[in-house]
Predict the 3D structure of the following.
Amino acid sequence: MGATVSSARKQAAKLLPDDDVVVLEIGGNDMLGDTTPAGFERGLDKLLADVVRPGRTVLMLELPLPPTFNRFGMIQRRLAAKYGVALVPKRVLMDVLARSDATLDSIHLSQAGHERLADAVWKIVAPAFHTATEEHK
């Protein structure tokens, strides 16, 4: 709770070189806190530069955008394209958040919410992993 793109860089520094899949669910606290769009852009750019590596798959959950926060979404989409990061559509997270036991406080995921989100993301990315596995046989 409370993580921002800046604090996520500290977590990203702990990634091992052979960590080949990274899922980023970040930006909500920046958007709803006191981070400016320009600050968010700088921080997310640095975070993605830290995380993206050849041979590593990086997925980022698209931000569910409240009214007047579209700039954060535009920044996220542009930087995802710049770094080749796959964006998981915001509807996936919104579907998870809509479940009664999915959150601790209506925003932060509970264990059940994390499990549902992992299942939903896996349904999206599994075909790519199966295709890659078949190509290497």
